[in-house]
Input
Amino acid sequence: MKNFSTVVARTAAAALLACAAGASAQVASPAVGAAASASCSFRPDAPDKHVVVKGDTLWDISGTFLRNPWCWPQVWGMNRDEIRNPHWIYPGQTIWFDRERGRLSLQRPGSGGDGGDGRDAPPLTRLSPQVRSADLARDAVPAIPAGAIEPYLTQPLVVEADELAGAPRIAASQEGRVYLGEGDRVYVHGAIGDGRVFQVFRPGGQLTDPQTGKVVAHEAAFLGTVKLVKPAAPGVDVHTFQVVDTKQEMGVGDLLVPAPPTPVRNYVPHAPLQAIDGRIMSIYSGVTYAGQSQVVTVNRGTVDGLDVGAVLQLYHLGKTVADPQSRGFLGMGRQQLKLPDEQYGSLFIFRVFKNVSYGLVMQVTAPAQVGDVARSPD
Output
């Protein structure tokens, strides 16, 4: 007998896809936000079908059929919740390109499985995504290669000003040890709320907004994890913690932040839900230029409407040059001409903080650098 969760999940998938039967690649779902009017056409060399295999990503599959991978939600008619929790593409499934109607489907075109011409299909009930099991979620095709971003999903990479000011700190160590290792006890001063597991970090370089010149956050060096053994008793000023693991040496003065919830790993590449016009602030690891599959920060976050899975286009800022035809004294005072920004790649946002986000550089034709433009797709 088939596993019930599998049947329900794939039934939900079929319902989801069939609901998009009338959606063409040229017609955008109103649910996808500010870039819904963008042109989302199929590639001229798009295949008739694609069999999903382990190792595929939504980005790769999207690029097989579409000129712009971030158009995937518009093609399927997905709403905002489905963009955030899209566990419905699995290895072994076949995605068909229905050329006549300009859409994708899990049913072979003309097979009748999608209601024939799409006009006589019976009403379909969408099933709640909560029925999907954890195993199915792990099996679902990820948006981008998990290995490329896994280290960045659970570490406190960015600490914003309000977190830094109120962060509890290691005030003393067991027997006055300078360097701490697994199993050692540490004493923490500061408010810890209801938290039991904390990550230990040390503030690093400042993240300065290239547009305003203001420091919006600090990068953080992840040192390890500690767990609460005993909260501060009356008359005692510190909480007792135990070191669970260490990635780098930690010691007195280092700061704590609550361990984040399990990160979302399955999401759909999509245009931002509202217009974004930001700048690259830094390149992870402190290098000057970033190529494909490298990580950068941008000066936009949740307060700007940016969310996980959003795709931004990268541009080099257009230079300003002197008009060679204009007159000037000894070449000075000539009219200045602003050249257009030059698009050279895409950025996939995979972790979002309040004012800062981390993105993975996707296809690029030139290196990314600090100050480059990152904005919503045209």
